[in-house]
């Protein structure tokens, strides 16, 4: 006989079946990464053997060396470029979005609500569809093929403004701002000494999400940077996979090198990334 | 009146900074600074987000070729009318919708199941959630290349697993060769990438359902499965609609997976007979391989309108299906 469950699911303890299912989910999530590692550490013979080899080999450094020394792929430079691009985009997003979020949350000015509505509206605009015109614009500016072309379009995000506004509204008490003003602090001063210290957790969340998203950006960098000496790591990866004769252990060694930084970020900041995604959902 | 005497500060100063220029500064700080703070967002978004979308419409109405810059000029609706007879466009549209269906439906259903699993009292709660995000942080370029190896015809993992069940032992599946097989392969990549992310969105909504809703239903003896479909799903309906719209917008612009699944990504052809070429990929090919930016811009606008319509329809349908009808 089934006993009625008198509890909400979130108060119900997970049974062994729950854990078993979750382990399966985790295995599927991690498998391609594991497989990437296996191929990246193997010889050609091991990669092509049937049945497939399922344990890592010892060729990782051989394969990585081949990737990094390949002509016309610029893999080393591409990793540095990716760090620069994702780093600059993250810094500007945090700065501009927290400034705007602060203004929308705590300052009074005409048309504030209308402007905030515009921000929310822009959340739904698929800007990717403007790539043709963006390419022409970058051509006029002379930025195509440079890192500026992949930094400038991502320097702010509507989600960032929205997220910051919500956080500032809750995390910064009005009295704190008022007392800083009574001491004669101008708005920018209030931002820097009152708001920024209070919203550090939100900055970490938005920073991680932005860094990951920018690092993984593929379509626009491919359009503007392909064929130059300044690819991002995603563009270099597609170069690695193009050509008449593709060597899988080499391609996946490159993929591994471009993935590891993000896995490390997930291990360090996983809690923040999870939080960012879950909070974004409730507020959308 | 004498011009010599500026307004004198009061004899008793309460605060030292009460000089005239400070007044001006404070007034600006109240009236102007707020706009200064929001200006960077609006300026950058206008220049690099909105302007390209609008300018795209102008480019679409012109001859605009990268290989022949002199041949530019207004071309009216030529670029748009060409779409109607372009077999590549209709083929790509068909592929895009096929892959979209194969990826969205299983993706969201599985995300719901996983969210339901995570919505329990668990040990190491955070780590399970971080675990399902592994695909989300993995660069799509990198994971697609893994799947490309996974789905090779000879010696690929997928065919090997199938051969264990006696499928395709004599004649292994050439995953890239046909529409159905390449669509399944690509849809699997998309599903893998986004299930965990959507699961967290659902989980977040599930945890804000008031507990007494469940307690009331438990009296009626609803088991866990009925509980999920009768209580949980209708209660998180806004987020379900949100994810449907989100994956519509993303799915119809699918680019990375079909691009890198190709044996020669640089061609952007989506297979030997375009069997998995998507619209976004075709836009890239028309614009930067055929060098016809005008036509690529027209195609972008067509895709924009399609996304608008489909996202709207999907939102309506989901609203109905997931229990919104009951209000």
UniProtKB/TrEMBL annotation, chain A:
GO terms for biological process: transmembrane transport. Its main location: membrane. It holds the Pfam family BPD_transp_1. Residues 79-269 form the ABC transmembrane type-1 domain. The chain crosses the membrane at residues 20-37, 79-102, 114-137, 143-163, 190-215, 247-268. It is a multi-pass membrane protein. GO terms for cellular component: plasma membrane. It is found in: Cell membrane. Keywords: Cell membrane, Membrane, Transmembrane, Transmembrane helix, Transport. Belongs to the binding-protein-dependent transport system permease family. This is Sugar ABC transporter permease. It comes from Mangrovihabitans endophyticus.
UniProtKB/TrEMBL annotation, chain B:
Its main location: membrane. GO terms for biological process: transmembrane transport. InterPro entries: ABC_transporter_permease, MetI-like, MetI-like_sf. The chain crosses the membrane at residues 35-59, 92-118, 130-151, 180-203, 235-255, 293-317. It is a multi-pass membrane protein. Keywords: Cell membrane, Membrane, Transmembrane, Transmembrane helix, Transport. One of its GO terms (cellular component) is plasma membrane. The keyword Transport applies. It is found in: Cell membrane. PROSITE patterns: ABC_TM1. Residues 93-314 form the ABC transmembrane type-1 domain. Gene3D superfamilies: MetI-like. Belongs to the binding-protein-dependent transport system permease family. This is Sugar ABC transporter permease.
């Amino acid at each position: 006989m089934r006993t009625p469950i008198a509890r909400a699911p979130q108060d119900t303890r997970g049974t062994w079946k729950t854990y078993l299912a979750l382990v399966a989910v985790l295995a599927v999530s991690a498998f391609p990464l594991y497989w990437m590692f296996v191929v990246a550490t193997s010889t050609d013979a091991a990669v092509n053997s049937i049945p497939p080899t399922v344990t890592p080999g010892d060729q990782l450094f051989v394969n990585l060396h081949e990737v990094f020394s390949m002509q016309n792929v610029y893999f080393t430079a591409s990793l540095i470029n990716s760090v620069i691009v994702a780093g600059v985009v993250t810094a500007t997003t945090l700065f501009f979005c927290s400034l705007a979020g602060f203004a929308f949350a705590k300052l009074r000015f005409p048309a504030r609500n209308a402007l905030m509505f515009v921000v929310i509206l822009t959340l739904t605009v698929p800007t990717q569809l403007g790539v043709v015109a963006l390419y022409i614009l970058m051509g006029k500016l002379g930025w195509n093929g440079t890192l500026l072309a992949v930094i400038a379009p991502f320097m702010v995000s509507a989600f960032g403004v929205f997220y910051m506004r919500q956080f500032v509204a809750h995390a910064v008490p009005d009295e704190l701002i008022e007392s800083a003003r009574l001491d004669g602090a101008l708005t920018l001063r209030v931002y820097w000494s009152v708001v920024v210290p209070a919203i550090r957790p939100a900055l970490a969340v938005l920073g991680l999400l932005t860094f990951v998203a920018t690092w993984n950006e593929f379509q626009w960098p491919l359009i503007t940077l392909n064929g130059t000496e300044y690819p991002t790591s995603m563009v270099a990866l597609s170069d690695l996979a193009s050509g008449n004769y593709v060597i899988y252990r080499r391609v996946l060694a490159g993929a591994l090198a471009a993935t590891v930084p993000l896995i490390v970020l997930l291990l360090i900041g996983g809690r923040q990334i999870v939080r960012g995604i879950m909070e974004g959902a409730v507020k959308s | 009146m004498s011009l010599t005497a500026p307004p004198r500060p009061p004899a008793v100063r309460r605060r030292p900074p009460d000089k005239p220029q400070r007044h001006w500064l404070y007034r600006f700080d109240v009236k102007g600074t707020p706009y200064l703070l929001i200006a960077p967002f609006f300026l950058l978004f206008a220049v690099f987000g909105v302007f390209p979308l609008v300018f795209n419409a102008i480019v679409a109405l012109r001859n605009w070729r990268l290989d022949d810059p002199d041949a530019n000029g207004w071309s009216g609706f030529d670029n748009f009318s060409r779409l109607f007879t372009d077999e590549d466009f209709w083929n790509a549209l068909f592929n895009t919708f096929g892959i979209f269906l194969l990826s969205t439906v299983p993706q969201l259903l599985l995300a719901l199941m996983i969210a339901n699993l995570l919505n329990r009292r668990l040990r190491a709660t955070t780590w399970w959630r971080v675990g399902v995000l592994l695909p989300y942080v993995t660069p799509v370029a990198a994971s697609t290349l893994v799947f490309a190896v996974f789905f090779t015809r000879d010696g690929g993992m997928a065919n090997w697993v199938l051969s264990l069940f006696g499928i395709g032992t004599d004649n292994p599946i050439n995953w890239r060769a046909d529409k159905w097989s390449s669509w399944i392969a690509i849809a699997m990549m998309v599903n893998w990438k986004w299930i965990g992310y959507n699961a967290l969105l659902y989980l977040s909504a599930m945890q804000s359902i008031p507990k007494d809703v469940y307690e009331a239903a438990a009296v009626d003896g609803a088991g866990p499965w009925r509980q999920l479909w009768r209580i949980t799903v209708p209660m998180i309906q806004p987020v379900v609609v949100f994810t449907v719209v989100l994956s519509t917008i993303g799915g119809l612009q699918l680019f990375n997976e079909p691009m890198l699944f190709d044996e020669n990504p640089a061609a952007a052809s989506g297979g030997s007979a375009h069997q998995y070429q998507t619209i976004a990929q075709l836009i890239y090919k028309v614009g930067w391989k055929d060098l016809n930016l005008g036509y690529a811009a027209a195609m972008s606008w067509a895709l924009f309108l399609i996304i608008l319509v489909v996202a709207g329809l999907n939102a309506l349908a989901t609203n109905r299906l997931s229990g919104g009808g009951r209000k």
